[in-house]
Write a structure and sequence with these properties.
Number of helices: 11
Order of helices and strands: EEHEHEHEHEHEHEHHEHHHEEEE
Number of strands: 13
Largest sheet: 8 strands, parallel
CATH class: Alpha Beta
Helix content: 25-40%
Oligomer: single chain
Mean pLDDT: 97
CATH superfamily: Metal-dependent hydrolases
Radius of gyration: 19 Å
Bound molecules: (4S)-2,6-dioxohexahydropyrimidine-4-carboxylic acid, zinc ion
Length: 355
């Protein structure tokens, strides 16, 4: 029998879905991502959402300042900015974003679907057709939080229903629009993305690859495993693992790392979001190793995303080594702290070197 791989060197990876927040929290978390990734798609769901190119450029500046304060060399990490789609996003704003060279996607949050989504879209085709038309024309990707918000729909079915009610009509109306189905969580989503015609892709988080919904309730209610879309059944996790490790170019890495202060997670009405920026590649390597597919990690983490977004692959490498990595219990974050996913547990892979 061949001995299992003990080190793995891949092209430097990118995170195609990340929440960095703003202000003091941004200062606390940005270095974690920069240690792991060369670039990241920065989600726009700040308390005051990033709805214009001007706001995106100002946020980008604050990210550069935070990187500078953290002692990260200029150019070592590039934030890829996004706008937050609203019922009022104009075609002119899309053109401006596209011409900026700094904005790489526009995010659809169905109003009320998740954290800071109140300003999100109420009726995609009814209210946003001009913006979608301009996006299709300019090649600007639509990044989709793919869950319906209809309270009559069971929480665990919201992604599957979204495909029927929103994704299919959207893609029929705008067949050339680039669409990223963010944080895919179900076998229905995997099947849809695999088979859809046209430029469709999906990001997959490390937590949806590693855990099913039992993790939320193991030994009691565990708020640090709560995110949206929520963890699903084991059969869905298996479909996600199969897709991520298949080498198919439509699937790529997006952590959806979403820091919340410890006290707002360990709460009677806890916030959704798992903090994985600190140990993302260790988590993904552990997940790929469980199915003996480490050879497919580079495509998923470093090659498929840039190909879809039309960007160059990174220079440089990241080397992972088999060995114990103990996840810290908590990390300082602004005036509070953040509890990373699977705090206190040990992973089987650790980062050994970067070049
Ligand atoms: O779990 C989540 N947290 N899902 C989202 O869609 C948003 C995110 C956040 O911003 O906290
Ligand atoms: Zn997200």
């Amino acid at each position: 029998m061949q001995s299992p791989t003990d080190t793995l060197t891949i092209t430097r990876p990118d995170d195609w879905h990340l929440h960095l927040r703003d202000g003091a929290v941004l200062d606390s978390v940005v270095a974690d991502t920069a240690r792991q990734f060369a670039r990241a798609i920065i989600m726009p769901n700040l308390k005051a959402p990033v709805i214009t190119t001007e706001l995106a450029m100002a946020y980008r500046q604050r990210i550069f300042q935070a990187l500078d304060q953290a002692g990260i060399a200029q150019g070592a990490f590039i934030p890829l900015m996004t706008l937050y789609l609203t019922d009022n996003t104009s075609a002119a704003e899309v053109v401006k974003a596209s011409q900026s060279g700094a904005v790489h996607g526009i995010k659809l949050y169905p109003a009320g679907a998740t954290t800071n989504s109140d300003a999100g879209v109420t009726d995609l085709l009814g209210r946003c057709s001009a913006a979608l038309e301009a996006m299709q024309k300019s090649g600007m990707p639509l990044l989709v939080h793919g869950e319906v918000t209809d309270p009559a729909i069971d929480l665990f079915d919201r992604e599957a229903v979204f495909i029927d009610r929103v994704m299919i009509p959207l893609r029929r109306a705008f067949p050339e629009l680039k669409v990223v189905f963010e944080h895919l969580t179900t076998s229905d989503g995997v099947d849809y993305v695999r088979e859809a015609e046209g430029p469709v892709a999906a990001t997959i988080t490390a937590h949806h690859l590693l855990y099913n919904r039992n993790a939320l309730f193991q030994g009691g209610i565990r708020p640090h495993w709560y995110c949206l879309p929520v963890l699903k059944r084991e059969k869905h996790r298996l479909a996600l693992i199969e897709a991520a490790t298949s080498g198919v170019g439509r699937f790529f890495l997006g952590t959806d790392s979403a820091p919340h202060p410890k006290g707002l997670k360990e709460n009677a009405c806890g916030c959704a979001g798992c903090y994985t920026a600190l140990h993302a590649m260790e988590l993904y390597a552990t997940a790929f190793d469980t199915v003996g597919r480490l050879d497919k990690l580079e495509a998923f983490a470093s090659l498929n995303g840039p190909a879809f977004y039309g960007l160059a692959v990174n220079q440089g490498t990241l080397t992972l080594r088999r060995g114990n990595y103990q996840i810290p219990a908590e990390l300082p974050m602004a005036e509070s702290s953040v509890v990373p996913l699977a705090a206190g547990e040990t992973l089987g892979w650790t980062i050994a070197a970067q070049s």
